[in-house]
Amino acid sequence: MLTPCVITVLITAMAMGLASTTPTPTPTSHILYTRSLRLPNDTYPLGYHLHISSNIHLGDFQFNGNATIDIEIRRSTNEIVLHAKNLTDIEITLRLLDNNKPDSTGELVDDVTHTYDPQGTFLIIHPRENYQAFEAGQRYRLEILYTGLMGTRPKGLYWMAYEEPISNHTTYVAATQSEPTYARLILPCYDEPAFKSNFTIRLTHSSALISVSNMPVQQVQNHGELTTTTFQTTPVVSTYLVAFVISDFDHISETYRNVTQSLYSSPTRKNTGRSALKNAVLTVAALEDYFGVSYSLPKLDHVALKKNQGAAMENWGLITFKEDSILPQDTSNEYRHIKDTLMQNHEISHQWFGNLVSPEWWTYVWLNEGFATYFSYIITDLLYPNQNVMDKFFKDEAEHAYSYSSFLDVRPMTYYVETEQEIMNVFDIISYKRSACVIKMFHHAFHQKTFVSGISRYLKKFQYSVVNELDLFDSLQSALLQDGQFQQQSWTQMVREIMLSWTHSEWLPIVSVIRNYENNTITFRQRSIHSKSEHWWIPLNFATAQSHNFEQTHVEYFMPPMMEHTLSLEELHLQLSGRDWLIVNKQQTGFYHVLYDTDNLHAIARQLQQNHSVIHANNRAALFQDLAPVIERNEIESFEVVLELFKYMEFEENLMPWNQVANTYEFLELNLYGTSSHSLFKQFIRRLVKPTFQRLFRKHEAGEAHMDILAQADIVSMACRADLPECLDYTHRLAHEYIFNKTSLGSEYPDLYAMHDILLCMGLRHQSDEDFRKVMNVLYVTDHDSMYFDDLVYALRCTQNHRHLMHYLNLLLGENSTYSIMNERETLLYLPYVFKSNMAARSVIWHFIENKYKLLSRSPHFVQVFNDICEYVPEHRMSYFQMLRQSIEIYMQQENLKSKVPLIDKNSSRVGKKMRTNEQFLEKFEHQIHNWLLKELPQPDSENIFAASLSVGNGSNRPGSILSTASRMVKSALGVNLSL
User: Fold this and answer.
1) What is the DSSP letter of 706?
2) By C-alpha distance, which of 443, 272, 278 is closest to 344?
C-alpha cells in the first residue's frame, strides 16, 4: 500500500511528468481534498519574466523555460496556487522580497515544496509542514525552471513544418495559442483572465530565425548559432493573450499614427499580404476615431501561419492567422475577400474588446466576441461602403442567431462555466452571433451616438482592467442620462434591468402586434419562442403609411416584461387610419420576431404591390423571416395573405427578401408535393423568380456590384426546383461541362465555387436516359479518392427520375456495391439524407428497402436508419409500413441479426410524426391555396412540369470532401447517430 508521500510524488510525476529536484514532501492535505477549479484570490502576480529556449531549427520540439513571477500576498494563506500543465523537470526557488528594498534579490525561502493537483491543473507551492507561511502584504519572487514539449495541434506552444520544394529543405516554425486555457501549457502562470500582469519575454532560438511577441523588440543578443531576443514589457495583460512566434518569416510594414503594423509570412508569400496590411492600417485608425480611444501598444503584428486555432487569434499586439485567411491565393474572389476582411477586422476589434478591457471570467465571453463581431461589420461598412457588409450581417450573423434555438442547446449570453471543456464550449453561436445581434439592437435603440459614447466611457474607465456585464451597463446608463433626447424617459434609470433581461434569458421573444381598428388601440403581446416563461424589456419603434421614416431606429416605446400591454395610438404618438399599414422594429434592428394581425398584413401586402420600396428592404425580409415559424407550425390564420405578400416578389431586386422567401418556398413546396396545387404553385413561383434569375445569371457587366453568393444560391435553388427552364438549362450546361470536360464551375463567375453543390445538384435533376448513362460511365472510371468522384456521387442524389434513383441506390447499397463509394456506416447515414432532401426519392427508397431489407438488415446500423425514416410515413401508408416492418422483424429474428437499437414499435408515436404537421397543413390550407392560385393564374402553364424536390443545402466554401461534410452535417442536423 502506497503512503501519502509516495502518492503525492506519483501523481505529480504522472500528471506533469514531474521530476523535481526539491526533496520529497512530507504528507500534507493539499492533494487530499477536492478543490474548486478556480484559482484562490489569496495571491496575485505582479509581473512575469519569461525565458523560453528552443532548438526548433534542429527539429527538436522540446523547450526549456524559466518563469520568474513576482507575487503579492493579498490574504494570509498556507499556499501559492497557479496553473501548469504537461510541464516537466520542475525546479522551484522562492525568495521573500523586502518591500523597503525593491532592488534586492530577496531572502531565500527553503522550507517549501510543491504539489500538483491534476484535476485543476494546479501547481501548489506550500510549506513542508502545514502552517500559514505567507502573510498578507508580503511579496515573493517565485522562479520556476521547467521543460515542455511542443505539440502539433494549436494548443500552448506548437510547431509546424514548411517545406521548400526547390531545395527540399524543411524549416520548422513555433507559435503559441494561449486562449482560453492553454497558457499553462507554455509556462506556470495564473491562467485566468482576471489575473492581469506585466510580461517581459525573452526567447532564445537559432540565429537563422527571428522571433516576434506582443511587444516590440528591446534587445537582441547574439551567441553564435543562437540568439536571445528580449521584448519590451507588456502592459498588464491576461495570460490568454500572451503570444510569440519563432520563424524564418519575412515581413512588410507600415507606420501610421505612431503605430507600426507588420505582416509576417513565409518569404514566398510576403507580397500577397499588402492588401491585408493596408486594411489593418485603415481599421486601427477607424476604430481609434470611432471610439475616441487610441490603440494602446506601439505596434501590431499580423502573422500568417499554416496552422492556427480557428481562422485567427487576437493576441494583444500579435494577431495570428491561418495562412489562407489573410494571404488569399485567388485575389479575384471578391466574396472571399470581404469575408477575410471581416475576419481580420474582428481580430483587430479585439485589441479594444478583450485586450484593453478584459472579462473577469469566461462567464462574459460575449463582452469580447459579441462586440468584436458586431463592430467588425460597423467598421468594415465605414471603410468600404460599396460592399453592403451590413446586408451580410443579416445573412451570416443574424439569420444564424435567429435560428440557433431550433437546433442547438440554448443558454443565456451570460453563463457561468468552470471546466476547461465548458470554457471552450462558450465560444459558440451565442457568444458571437446572438450577442452581436443584441448589441446591435441597443446600438440603435439607445441612439447610435449615445451608445458609442457609452462604449467609449466603458473603454476609458476600465482600460487595462477586467469587467463584468454590470460595468458595461452602468457606462451605457451614464451616457443615456446625458442624452437630452431621453431625459423624460423613466427607463433610462433602469439600464441594468433592461439589459439583464436579454443577457440572462435563454430564448428569443416573439412580439404580437394586434390592432383594434374600432377603438384605435394596439395590444402588444410577448412570449418566448420556446414554451419557457421568459419576458424582456423590448425596444419597439414604428413606421406607418403616414410616417415611415425607417432611418430613425431608436426606441420609441419600451415594452415592459409582461405578457400583454395595450396602448392607444395617442399614447404611442401614432397616426393610423383603418387601411394604413404599421411596421414594428424598423430595419429589423431589434432582435425579436414580430407578428401582425391579418388585416395589417393585408395592408402591408397592398403597399408592397403598389410600391415595395416604401418599406425598407430589411423589413421586407423580416416579414417572411418572422412568418416562417408561424407557417411551419400551422399557426397562420389565413394563407391567402401569405400568397398576397409573395406577389410583389416579381419586382423585388434586393436579395435579402429573397433569402427569406426561399426558406418559406422550401416549406410550401414540400408540403404541396403530390397535391393538385403543386404544379400551380410552381407556376406561380416561376413567374416571381424569373426576372431576378435573368438579372443575376447573365455575364457580369463592367462595374456591376458584387452579389451575395449565398443569395444567388437561393435563387438558383428556388428557380430550378420550380422548373424554370432558364435555370434548368443553365445548371444543366454547367454541370455537364464540369462532368465531361472538367471545366471549373468558376469559369464564368469567379465566385461560383460558393454554390458548387447547388449547381451540380440542379444540373442533374432532369436527365435523359442517355445523359444519365454517360454520367454513370464517368463515375465508374473516376478515382474513388478524388474530390471529383465525391462531387458526382453527391450530385446524383438530386435526380428526379425513379429508374435513375433506383440505379443510384443500387450503386450505393446494392449487392455489388461492396461499399466502395463510402463505408457501410457512411452509406447508411447517407440514405436518410437522400430521403429527406429529395421528395422524388421517397417512394423509391421505400421500394428499395422492401426489396433489399434482407441485405440491409445485416448492417448493425440499418435499424436506426429505418426508425428515422419511419417518422415520414404518411397516414395512408401505415398498413404498408406495418407489413414491411413485420417482414424485417421476422427476418432478423430468423437470422439472429443484431442491431444497435431496437426496431421501432409499430404503434410508436414516432411513426409518421414528421408527416402529421404536413397532413394538418394540407387539411387546413390546401383548398384555400388551390383556389387562390386558380384565381391568380387563369391561364394554364404550357411549360413542362416536373416533380419537385426539397431544397439542397448550399455551402459557402468548397469542402475537402462534400460527402464527408454531408455526413457530419446530417449527424447533427437530422439527429441520426451512427457512431455507436
Assistant:
1) P
2) 278
Question: Phi and psi dihedrals of 450, rounded to 5?
Answer: -65, -45
Of 359, 381, 489, 511, residue with least CA distance to 435: 359
Nearest to 696 by CA among 735, 726, 665: 726
Taking phi over 0 as left and psi of -120 to 50 as alpha, with beta for the rest, 469 belongs to alpha
3-state class of 448 per DSSP? helix
* Burial status of residue 6 (CB atoms within 10 A of its CB: 0-12, 13-18, 19 or more): exposed
What residues contact 382, with CB distance under 8 A and at least 6 apart?
286, 290
pTM reported for the whole predicted model: 0.88
Ranges of beta strands (E only) in 306-371 are 312-313, 318-322, 357-359
- Distance between CA 753 and CA 730 in Å, rounded? 16
- Reference 505, options 484, 482, 528, 538; nearest CA is 528
| C-alpha distances out from residue 673 to 558, 696, 785, Å | 44, 28, 36
Cβ-based neighbour number of residue 851 at 10 Å: 14
Residue 689, all three cell numbers: 423568380
Tell me the CA distances in angstroms from 221 to 53, 60, 205, 234, 301, one per residue in order.
Answer: 13, 22, 11, 20, 22
List of residues 6+ apart from 158 with CB closer than 8 A: 150, 151, 152, 174, 175, 176, 177, 307
C-alpha grid cell for residue 57? 531549427
- Cell numbers at residue 157, please? 506552444
Is residue 155 within 8 Å of residue 125, measured between CB atoms? Answer: no
Q: Per-residue pLDDT tens for 613-630?
A: 999 999 999 999 999 989
Kindly write down the DSSP assignment for every residue of 880-921, as one continuous string.
HHHHHHHHHHHHHHHTT---SSPPPPTT-TTTTHHHHHHHHH
Instruction: Select from 536, 512, 720, 470 the least CA-distant residue to 629.
Output: 512
Q: How confident is the model at residue 165 (pLDDT cuts 50, 70, 90)?
A: confident
- By three-state DSSP, how is residue 398 classified? helix
Helix spans in 742-768 (H) = 756-763
Among left, alpha and beta (phi > 0; psi -120 to 50; other), residue 19 is beta
Radius of gyration of the chain (CA): 32
In contact, 856 and 846? CB cutoff 8 Å: no
| CA–CA distance, 325 with 327 (Å, rounded to integer) | 6
Contacts of 784 (CB under 8 A, 6+ apart): 820, 821
Cα separation, 556 vs 584, in Å, equals 10
- The pLDDT-based confidence of 2 (bands split at 50, 70, 90) is very low
Decide: 65 and 127 in contact? Cβ < 8 Å.
Answer: no
Q: Cα(448)–Cα(377) distance, rounded to whole angstroms?
A: 15
Nearest to 348 by CA among 309, 383, 382, 376: 376
β-bridge partners, 63: 54, 148
Residue 823 has pLDDT above 80, yes or no: no
Mean pLDDT of 397-407: 77
Q: Is pLDDT at 971 greater than 70 in this prediction?
A: no
- DSSP symbol at 433: I
Give the Cα separation of 146 and 52 in Å (integer). 10
Closest by Cα among 8, 13, 43 to 26 = 8
CA–CA distance, 805 with 810 (Å, rounded to integer): 9
Pair 794, 827: CB distance under 8 Å:
no
Separation CA 326–CA 339 (nearest Å): 10
Specify the pairing of strand 357-359 against strand 509-516.
unpaired
3-state secondary structure of 177: strand
Distance CA 125, CA 79 (A): 5
Phi, psi of 839 (to 5 degrees): -60, -35
- In the three-class reduction of DSSP (H, G, I as helix; E, B as strand; rest coil), residue 82 is classed as strand
